[in-house]
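just leaving the lab so this will be short. what follows is a protein written twice so to speak, once as letters and once as structure tokens for the fold. can you read through it and tell me how you think this chain folds. anything you notice is useful, everything is just below:
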Amino acid sequence: MAIVTYEELAAQVGLTEDAPSEDKLSLQQKGDAAQAHIERWLGFKIADRFGGDLFPPIPDDLKEAVLQLAAWWFANREALADSDKLLPFGVQDIIDAHRDRSF
């Protein structure tokens, strides 16, 4: 389950309705990949702990982390992007705050 909508992703990067379909598809793929990447770092699927009737709401900072990472990947999708930086500023702090450390 995606925790951010395409509309939220598009607003994050300023993509308008008249954007090329390739950009729209790329942005959606970046959103899905960002959430999957963050979930691997967290050690759990976000939907397994948040959202729905039985769980607390999805934390806004986790949504922000997905939006920031997807937007950063979308903006830096060319091969000449800053490749020495793994995550945009602040995303690692958000992940660390929610990370499952029970092994």
